[in-house]
Amino acid sequence: MATSPALVSPSRTTCASLRRQLQVIWDEIGEEDGDKDMMLQELEQQCLDIYRRKVDSSRKHKTELAQSLADGETEIADLVSALGETASFPQRVKGSLKQQLSALKPALQDLRQRKQARMIEFHETQLQIAQICAEIEGN
What we know:
mainly alpha
C-alpha cells in the first residue's frame, strides 16, 4: 500500500519528494515542459536565496561570537593587569566558539567580582584615611 503524499509528515518531507509531487500535479494539469522548467528554476533560485541569507546570518553570528570572545579575553588581560594578579587564568580552550565563550565566562565573572571587592576596599581605606586626617587636624 503506497503512502499518500498528503499523509507524509512534514518532518519527513524532503525537497525531492515535494518536487516529485509537483511534477505529478503538473503532469495531471498538463503544464508545458518549458513552463515546468521555468517554475523549477524559480524554485531553485528561491532556495538559493534562502540558503544565502542563512549563510550570511550564520556568518554574522560567528563574527559576533568571535568578537565577544576576543573582547572577553582582552577584558581578562586588562583585569589581571589592573589587579596585579599572578594567577594564571584559562587559556583559550579547544572547541566551538560557544564552548570557548562558556569556558571564559566564569573566569571573567570571578575577576569582575575581585575588582569590585578591591574597589570597595579602596574606598573604605580612603574613608579611613580621611577620618584619620580629620582627627589629626582636630576636627
